[in-house]
Amino acid sequence: MEENNKPQPQYIYVQSPHHYEEDETEIDLLELFSAVWKKKWFIIFVTFIFSAAALAYSMYLPFIYRGVVKFTPQQAGSRAASLMAQYGGMASMLGISLPGGATSPGQTMLALIKSDSVVDTMIDKYNLMEENEWEYRINARDSFLETYVETNEDTNTGIITVACLNEDPQLAADMANTLVDELQKKIAAMSLEDARQRTKFFEAQTLQTLQELTTAEENLMNYQKSSGVIELTEQSKGLLTSIATLNDRIAAKNIEISSMRSYLKSDNPRLKLAESQLQAMQDELKKLEAEQKSKDGGRGLGASKEIGFSVEAIPELGVEYQRYVRELRLAGTKYETMIKNYEAAKLAELTDFSTISIIDYATPPDYKYKPKRARICIMGFLLGGFLSTMYAAWPNFKKQMFADRKKDEDDEDYDDD
Q: What is the chain's alpha carbon radius of gyration, rounded to the nearest angstrom?
């Protein structure tokens, strides 16, 4: 009974304020829209002011015209160019490093247009330092390229577009044509200097290879005199060459077989094939030696009347003889290559220059390139509308932001309790 008389605990259920968060968000948006709508005339007025200011600014800007020149980089075809292409590869095979290297023509053209010498010529010719009140030349170059010049290269077709901007359409076209003319002069000067350098290079190389050719001739002549190989007939020379070649092949095959035996078994087909090839070459060498002996009248290892030295010495003499002949032929080939390259360089110095092929010269444009007045007016209208709307909505938005922050702080205090 005493337990029934005890007071029972009372429970109070408090509804969380977050149940209506979605409804509060909708009410906030409505309040923002209502605040903006209350200031609609202010927004219209500010937007009109910005639009009028943008229109006035676009009307104030002068018309800018664009003179355009289109061209492609081109290597002038000539006998000199073809000779350089033909013998340049041969010179590389011989271990001779030629001056110059491969470059991208389009990128080279664009870089030359922006070179200091070309830009300075344009600035001085049209008195742009005084007209624009540029104080320093280094700043004037950058300003000229940013204000007056536009360049573009189509990588698919290789066509380069150079445009000059000016308030006067005739002057814009003249500046574009003059800029391309200065580019051509720059290329011609560089090509002439490059041709002169090539001529000097090939002249020095020709003298060097001539000395090598003379030395090779003297070495062969001295060897022929000392060994008596000079008395060989054409048939004996052929026999001597065959014996020397076979000895070289036999030596190489022996090295190959020794290497194969280190990692192949004795019954391996590849090893057996190499051994059979070696045996065939040895048999061929014996036949050649037997042929030489028969020419000696069956005297075996005696001296041959036809060639004047022992048959035993034929392999060694053949190797030495072929080495001197090889050196002479190589020196002769190098000398011939350098002579032809030297002739091509001399011809290029006189007649052959890298140039450009003009597709379209610049003509005075009959339409303005800029300013884009419609675009400026649209941007002014959008900017004015955005800023005025933000200004009208900001007080209400700020009020709600502080209210939400206070509500979050109260919720945190409640959770702590």
A: 46
